[in-house]
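Hey all, sorry for the wall of text incoming. These are the three entities for the joint prediction.
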Amino acid sequence: MSPDTVTQSTTSATRVGIDTGGTFTDLIAAEGGVLRMAKTLSTPSDPARSTGEALTKAGIGDEGQVDTLVHGTTIATNALIERRGAVVGLITTLGFRDLLEIQRISRPRSFDLHWVKPSHLVPRRLVREVRERIAADSRVSVPIDLDDVRRAAAELVEQGVEAIAISFLFSFLNSDHERQARAAVHERFPELEVSISSEVFGQWREYERTSTCVIDAFLKPTVARYAAELSELGRDRGIGDLLVMRSNGGVMTPAGAREKPVSMVRSGPAGGVIATSYVAKLVQFANLIIADMGGTSFDTGLIRAGEPALTTFSELEWGIPIAVPMVDVRSVGAGGGSVAWIDAAGIMRVGPESAGADPGPACYGRGGERATVTDANLVLGRLPHDLPLAGDLDLDVEASERVIGALAAGLERDPKEVALGILRIADNNMAQAVRLVTIDRGYDPREFALMAFGGAGPLHASAIARALSMRDVVVPIFPGAFSAFGALIADTRFDYMRTSVMAARAADLTRIQLIYADLEDQAASDLAREGILEAPTLVRTVELRYAGQNWELEVPLEGEPSTESIDAVKRRFHAEHDAHFGWSLPDGDLELVNFKLAAIAARATPELPELQTGPLPEPVSSRAVTFDDGETHDSTPVYWRADLCAENRIEGPALIAEPDATVLLAPGDRLEVDSFGNLIITVGGPTA
Amino acid sequence: MYREVNEMPKCVNCGILIPTQELRFTHHERQLISCSERCQRIYDTYKYPRYSEDIAALEQAGDPGIRLGYAGVQR
Amino acid sequence: MSAATTKSTPLDTRIETDPILLEVMRSHLITSCREMGIAMMRTSYSPIFNEGLDFSCVIFDAAGEMIAQADFCPAQIGAIPHVVEWCIKEVGPENMSPGDVILHNDPYRGGCHLPEFMVLKPCFVDGEIVAYTANIAHMVDIGGLVPAAFGDTRNIFQEGLRFPPVKIYREDEEVEDLFRVLVSNIRSPRFGYGDLKAMIGSLYVAERRIVELVERYGEAEFTRCAQDIKTVSEILARRAISDLPDGEWTFEAVIEDDGVEPDAEWRIHATVVIRGDEVIVDYTGSSPQSPGPPNQTWGVTASATYAAMFNIYGAIPFNHGAYRPISIIAPVGSFVNVEYPGSCVGGNSDSSPTTVDVILAAISEIAGKGTASDGDTCGILSLGGMDPRSGEAFAHLHFDGGGWGGRHDHDGNSAQVPKTSNCANTPVEVLETRYPLECVEYSLNTAVTGRPGAGEFRGGFGTRRVMRVTSESMTLSAHTNRNRVHPWGKAGGEEGGNCAVRLRRRGEEEWKTAPELLGTISSGKFANVELREGDEVSLGMPGGAGYGDPAARDPELVAEDVRNGLYTPAEALEIYGVSLDPASGEVMQAETDQNRS
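and here's what came out:
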């Protein structure tokens, strides 16, 4: 974010970031120079309710107390994973009803006889073709038959569809037919949710565009319901600005989210990524691996050179693309609530099923009767349940012992051994996920530090790091509400792209200037609709290629479009092509293809309070804790995190407790507190 | 100078063309060519025992016998 | 280590290298191969590269054995160990200098067919070769009889330019004379040049990553890891084979019509011998080579064999070690090991899917992975001419997806390339932007002659594609299979569908075969017929065969297929004995039970 556009918050304004995960809803409030945290159990069926509860709990639930609220949520992600969304109908060009069945005809693994091709979200019977055709040169070759569209819509509604996706060939060049078709559908069914592919993903490749459009339509009713509930909450509580986290790490209004729900699919993890790149700059680890372990899932991704990775490519399942800009994060089903079970072969497994918030782990005393990762931690003494915990939960150790005992009886093993086994399996699952984002992409995890957050992250970080032979772990401030912190500091960000293929030799500067003027107008109006009137930071990039190539390389366009800046783009392209791909054709003809603009309106960032130095505080208690080697240390000291001072050093074994998370320091681990209160851990002892 | 592929030997067992570094071995008093020790072993333990009659017949008929993988005494 | 001295590894071999380091190294190498592929995809000119991904990227160790590959095209992956190994031997490492790149496409020297160009680059650290980066990619046009290569050729000389191993770069400089010879012999020189530069550039990308590794961990550690990577895979492969019962299994299928003798057939006969932890696949008994183009080279037959065995193995990191337990016997001069100067352009693409299925038919059942036959053709259409929009010549290679055979536990997938390939289709929007063609239809092939075989688990559907010519004139060639022979069913499943190439002149109603319309001798394999503006070609891809008795199919699945418009209610009754309520489409259980009893 650029310093010239930051406005410092006035002392009275309270700004709030909230993250609704599968288990907990976390809140961070900034008022003046003070940060506060609150945590409640999530209400997955009604995320607005737990948001309201979190506000109340933080003591800012009354009308007019909150100035700005940013909400990150996994609601869109969960709807996709569970495939619970709208019944979608697809209207497409005559002759192409089977695009979703055919997909790209390849497969994820070369040699797997048993691979079953995933089916898309629209069954064949809910696809209708209409007469229309845009040609490859963007001209209309067959005018659209709107009677076909009306008939198709009527039939689909008759069959019970709740949303319609419209995707025509070459609509990325000429969206006229898609717009007419939408209007025709709305004429007859004004309330029906409709997504058109040119708006959702205006790029070539009909399958990828259609897939993304269908997913957008699939999410529309879910996100519309959510946006309405959230807006209602905003009205009830007199919240000034209400915003939601988007997949690209920026924020937008609920109305904006409702327009384009597919931009919410990474809303949950985006907060953690933004917060990690912020703290990366404070702790001076430029390369970090995100280890966000909550109640339900484990999310991991990379921060390299301080910057989060963005991608426009992700998949619902293999072969089902979702093509929108988003933070590059991988999720696996491993969290505190992950359930341990015994499979048909008598082997113990952990997850991906989670007990979630309700009933939750057995120790929550809400009727959970199956052993979870949290129960295993509790049985091994790793959770100081005698200290005040978040969510007003009294953890029931006996319940944990009972369910783990039952599992142990089934396996004819010692309960402690089974509890350790649960953790070993869960830790290994998470280490594998980290492998996929590092080793699989050619990065050595040992050259990264692990940023551990989420309610359960700090408890498992040392073991995950050890499994990957990593040396450094960072536990940031407010680890249990870190994604909420990210929501609090995220900027408003809109990404735009216009395709206009032109030979670089004959690059039409006037045309490029017009494109950017147009995109900037669009940005200004989108930002104005978000209530932002000051000038945003504009980042322009151009995607270009050698004439004849099919894929482009993105190169920054520094400053305003001008003959000089375009020439610089061309020079940079040759150099980057050489650097990335090992060759270039300095005399080769270039084509400018896509003109991109990111409009970023920086929001005020709260100053993090600095911590004073001081002597190491006394432990608040001590307890018996069993570590991964099976050894029990009877008087493991427990420190209260809020007592710690800058530059304090602690050697393992120890526990550092705070209301929403516990840091486990294994024997041999060393911890140091930095000047902002982040815990920097050097993993010791034997490495795997 | 360039040597065309029809002037190169083929493995008596697997049938692969051997552009260079062929292995020569003696099998039942015949000089044979293989591409690897493994092929030599497979020829000895599988191919020859299984097809010895056919190989002998082909040899008698003056066929180079390579359809059964017999590379001939000399190329 | 060369194949000549390769010893098998005992099952109880212990790996001494730090397992984390080994995993880091192995993944780093595989990622480098992927990066090589991505560089090629992103910088190449022809859609068969940048959309179809018809290429394979590998890294070899200094011993000349494959240590890493990325999952792109299996047909090449199987041949590449031999091409690269033989190429290194023939040139000799002592004759290589830093910055050299070697080009090779000779089908008889371990290769697949002429269009598969292989480039190879030795990677030097401190003056020593530590590894080789290499890739094979399908060049769309290589001169020869027809644009985009697939014609009714009778010998190798008609098929295009052939390169024994030659240096195309010397010490980082293009060997300009060779480039000039090459591009002056192909129909779309600018595309050919760009594609070749993309292939070579990507070698440099991967080389940088290897040098990084060697510099970080040292050459000794790198070499040791390279050995262990292969050993681990070999042990896993041997274990997988040991799990199969010892014995011999035989299967035979035929390839129809070579485009020269349309009524003839060629046998692919395989005996699979499992002996402990190794397997011998013996093709003795296959037909002599054909006069036309469907012959397989040794490399193609090996690739198909490996592909089939890897489908049986399951998930094992595929490198040289995984090949060691597999021995192949391919009689010289037979259909599965064509001899110089026999033609072979079609073997790699369209005979090899049948070869894979022959082996799977022989042993998938004993491995507990029973499967019926796939559609087993790529449906290759070669198109060429002038694009009026650019004024440039073009050559386009078109292929599409058939149906997989039904499996013992699941229907076959619809619209998939055969198991010897893993190429993606070219999006309609890319196709029309790049070539003077309009795609009129792209759908599932529900025609009675093309649809999949019925079974408890039915085959998958193939695709149907209709394209219309938008330039004044272009030539069309076809190389397709299963126009007459059907994919075979298993365990009582019915046979699958046929492929169909049909043509229609502008303004005409009726679709005709090439012999009917143009007097060619074959309807599935023909070369250089002329199409004019507005003419259309239709390609119906075969559905896979069925697995198990159709009468055992879950009636609900039948009802679902009817709801989705894949079968009519009358067909549900006739084929599967399922009665559906005419109003609701629901299964009428009592009637169904009666029909089936």
